[in-house]
Amino acid sequence: MSVTVSQHKNFVGGEWVDAIEGGTMEVLNPATGEVIAEVPSGTQADVDRAVEAAKKALPEWLETTPQERSEALLKLAAAIDDNTEELAELESQNVGKPLGPHAMRCRSRRTTSASSPARRGCSRASRPAST
Questions:
Q1: What is the C-alpha to C-alpha distance for residues 84 and 73, in angstroms, rounded to an integer?
Q2: CB-based contacts of 26: which residues, under 8 Å, 6+ apart?
Q3: Distance between CA atoms of 49 and 10, rounded to whole angstroms?
């Protein structure tokens, strides 16, 4: 099976950026040894840039209401839910483990509401412990 190598950047201060020193590193599927992605190889300078961006964003975040923060977090949760299948595939490749039957069962329920009986039991808390 051929895997397309995706290239990524860091998201800092609302922008997609390369590592400050320009370094990258390969992400391998440990089960196959295949390169599945190329990501920025961050250094302390990248950490400092991210911390500064977070400090700069904090005052605006603190001015938001609890309702606005809740809506932002719910929007993030919806994006995760909308992309569950792709995220599961990516994580499967990243850790070198196949998707289990539980993931397949939840995948088949994607079209139902998250609170419906058909979707209940697909949350992280209800998954069997990994071995």
A1: 16
A2: 5, 35, 37, 38
A3: 11
Q: What is the pLDDT of residues 54-103, one digit of tens each?
A: 999 999 999 999 999 999 999 999 999 999 999 999 999 999 999 877 66
In sequence order, what are the residues at sequence separation of 6 or more whose Cβ sits closer than 8 angstroms to the Cβ of residue 89?
99
Q: pTM for the full model?
A: 0.68
Say how far apart CA 107 and CA 42 lie, in whole Å: 34
Q: Which amino acid is at 85?
A: E
Within a 10 A sphere around the Cβ of 16, how many other Cβ atoms? 10
Domain ranges of the chain: 1-63, 84-131
Strand order in the sheet with 24-28: 6-7, 35-40, 24-28
DSSP letter at 85 equals H
Find the DSSP H helices in 21-95: 44-62, 66-82, 84-95
